[in-house]
Structures
1.
Amino acid sequence: MPQGDPYGIHRSLEPKGALPQPAWRIDNTMRCYDNEILIDVETLNIDSASFEQIRQEAGDDPPRIAQIMQRIVAERGKHHNPATGSGGMLIGKAAQIGDSLRDRTDLQTGDRIATLVSLSLTPLVIDEILQMDRKSGQVDIRGQAILFETGLYAKLPDDLPLKVSLAALDVCGAPAQSKKMVQPGQQVVVLGASGKSGLLVLKQARDNLGPKRESAERIGRLIAIDRGAAACERLRQLDWADEVLDLDATDPIAVMRAVADVTSGQMADLTINCVNVPGTEMASILATRDAGTVYFFSMATSFTAAALGAEGAGKDVTMLIGSGYTKGHAELALQLVRNTPQLRAIFTERYGR
Ligand code: NAP
């Protein structure tokens, strides 16, 4: 086979010459170019915002969810949800390694890997959907995928259950970015703190801030927000956050008032949004002090809602887009799960098999 473009441009069909992520449709022929890796896919981890949207559209009916997933891949050659724009990632076994890559990779045929690039740019064929976990968005399939020359991947460790690693790697950008951002002494809000990225971020933020102290000598304050009594009780038991608030993140005024209350009106220096539903931009912005920072990890974030909403409210905050990648992100997330018994237990209970 010939050599393809390192970024995968050779596979873009509509429009031709586009990068594969923004392309509407890509070529998902499962023939491996010289600089590609062919993967026998075992499990797709559909991005949480995307899976939530598909569940809603399908009335939470598994056969209809499966139909929508098949339709997306048939139309686009990739699992790129047109409603949310997001993808997810996968685990599978390397079935073929292109000739020109063999000397440049430590990967062997048969090795099990997780892709660390989005399904929204990954050529994919779904032959059959075998099993679906509607809570986690993990879907076992029979199918194949292609990784481009520049595509990042991680070999899966053998000391963690496969699906625990898959869940942690799906959101590994969030704790790694948080490690760079959270500074001792800050007041930090985590929205969606009980989800998988939220929990990893919460633990990383606690580590950065240092141990909890009595109020008089507090160095920084960590505020966890999620919805529902059960989620909040679990967060309290973890004892990483100084405050746990049971709030709907789509209600910006309630969030703003509650954060004002627990910060004596100072508001957050940094707000990290890990929610998986639309409409939470303003809660993030209003929870944050002037000149503070909002980190939007959520894929359900609207650029226009955030930009125009901040302007409309006269909030001078720095807003960061949550890139899925930062150096060392995969290892950091796996280490957090490995070294934190509570995280390991929750991830194993929710995702592990
Ligand atoms: P998750 O495990 O589904 O967690 C989402 C959390 O938000 C859950 O605890 C959920 O509670 C909570 N939540 C939902 N609606 C809420 C509301 N109205 N108020 C308060 N809390 C609410 O999701 P995840 O896998 O961590 O992903 C989080 C976000 O990151 C998603 O938007 C996902 O698309 C995005 N993501 C981004 C990247 C990137 O590269 N930037 C990569 C992967 C994922 P319930 O369980 O009760 O619904």
Note: Residues 47-49, 86, 170-171, 173, 192, 194-198, 226-228, 231, 248-250, 274-277, 297-300, 322, 324 surround NAP (CB under 6 Å).
2.
Amino acid sequence: MEKYFIKTFGCQMNVYDSHRVAGLLEKRGLSAAERIEDADLVIFNTCHIREKAAEKLFSDLGRVILIKQERAAQGKDTVIGVMGCVVQAEDEQIFKRSAAVDFALGTLTYHRLPQILDDLAQKKAEMVIDTEFPAESKFDYLGENTSQGACSFIAIQEGCNNFCTYCVVPYTRGVETSRPVEDVVREARKLVSEGTLEINLLGQNVNSYHGEDALGKERNLAYLINKISEIDGLKRLRYTTSYPADVNDELIDCHKNVPILMPYLHLPVQSGSDRILKAMNRRHTAGEYLEVIAKLREANPALRFASDFIVGFPDESDEDFQATLDLADKVKFITAFSFKYSPRPGTPAAEYEHQVPEKIKKERLAVLQDKLFGYQLNFNKEMVGKIVPVLFEGDGRHKGQLTGRTPYMQNLYAEAGDECRGKIVNVKIETATMNSLSGTIAGD
Ligand code: 5AD
Ligand code: SF4
């Protein structure tokens, strides 16, 4: 095997996992293929959060089977693997739905990929599936992480104990586990030494992080943020995704006292109705959510918020939905991800009575998005004329153009030379749309 191709669906945790798997493969001497057709090993890293996300996998698998057949006609073998949350949820059904799959790896066992590739090569197995929730941590086996460029992710926490009634995560990622403080700090130092300027600490429930320090004492996210912020050369720090009821005062203080902590926080609320929040098994009311936001704003007035919403949760009435719209008006989120409720097999809410008809879900989503997109566009427009530090990462749409991100995670395009790549450069914002900004380099 010489070339691999990984296609990633879903969240940033999956992006991180794919990067770690690529690291394992590169250690074995494989390199990334530009096109799927050139790959001896194709891996789909999958998402199961909503029905649509899972269905995408099966349509992609259909296409890759044809590629496998074409390559076979040219005498080339193709190994196809599936990893991630769909595997954890579907288990052996994966092979039933697609016979072309050679191996399937769950979310907590992908460090075993090298062994599985060896077994397949030696024909010790025809198909391999591993969906265990092992006692050992994959991080002890993955080796050192490598830089993902100017912006890097570090998974610090995985799994969730909240069991929101609509959500598959506790089943696909297991119970909460946190990586030790020292491991995370070492990974952060290494990434910064390789050119990373921005680190995003990842976890499904990142603010309930409780990793052990060198003396075996449990430490929280605020402690970790303070430690990482001491790393020389690190310019920006973020964490995603937080659970509102677990935002404690120490974490709020970080937004006041840690200058490199960016003024943007993704804090999913899901609904503005207390009745629905209760049915969702969220451990907070709308009022408590707004209190957390108020405290964070007091700690750092520049802070702006992003959120996730679900519309059409079972039994959601017009009044419940109105409460969601009201909450959106109160916070004026600068970005928001909103979804129609999707019943997930095995989750409690999928069995609830009074499922909301698709037509109503669709209507509510359109109304909510209209509002949310309006706030997003307004915020972007407010930036016009301002000078903003932008971390440039990749190529823009045209030659001579680079893309980067503002402190508020906005995408920005600017005419910029290669010397700006991987650097933070001041940019004067010229235009704004809902999804991006453009500007010109403003120098110091
Ligand atoms: N239906 C719709 N949206 C969902 N999410 C999670 N589970 C479901 C579901 N069953 C959304 C939540 C969560 C985001 C990652 O996906 O808003 O915060
Ligand atoms: Fe899912 Fe709720 Fe856990 Fe978020 S907090 S991962 S929505 S169970």
Note: The longest strand covers residues 387-395.
3.
Amino acid sequence: MAVKDYIRERFFPHIWCAGCGHGNVLSALLRAVEQLSISKNEIVGVSGIGCSSRITGYVDFHTLHTIHGRALAFATGVKMSRPELNLIVTMGDGDALAIGGNHFIHAARRNIDLTAIIMNNRIYGMTGGQFSPLSGHGILATTAPYQTIDHDFDIVKLATAAGATFVARTTTYHAKQMTDLIRDAILHEGFSVVEIMAQCPTYFGRKNRLGDAVEMMEHLKNTTTPIGSKAKQENPDLIERGIFVQKELPEYCSEYDKVIERASKG
Ligand code: SF4
């Protein structure tokens, strides 16, 4: 199948602002499934609420556009009942890690075979530019006109500590790496997390005077570096990109099958 076969053309043009990073992520996701030649009948896309969650409207998979913060809970239910399907859960930073924070931690802990793609643009875009747990300290937002005083946290470290068996990070600037990491995450058997640092020029960019989408993507390029690079040793403030965790552990649905087997013998 070609990339265009995975799109619902009838829902275009999309609702995203010009230059929004979510379009870059949609492109990478489509290229990843096209490379894997997965039948669209074997993919379930699940999202919560937010600009990023509109992705499920544009992909011609089985899709569920659910409620705020609960995408992973819905995806867990689908996966438990149809473990042969590929579950791809697309979320924004607030959806995944504020409202959905508990679901995120426990999906990781269970090692259920879901692919979680977190589009981290550090803002609630759809509702008007409120700061999120990923905004960071000293940021301007509609709910922080005198700058945020909250500190953010590291998605990679949180996912790793919670037990995710595949953890990666990239940015919308790094288009090929984005496709490669989504593909590897889909192939991974277990809970996989791909953080994609993305630009919201309309709110985060405008409020914080970061320029247009191109300038914001250049900023993503200039503030990140591959894991273990010499540049990181010279400048510890650089954010690392690549695969941080890739390990095998028993997958939740397979383990649950064993419980059913033991119960039916008992
Ligand atoms: Fe994208 Fe921000 Fe516009 Fe939402 S508000 S569509 S995140 S640019």
Note: Residues 13 and 244 are 36 Å apart (CA to CA).
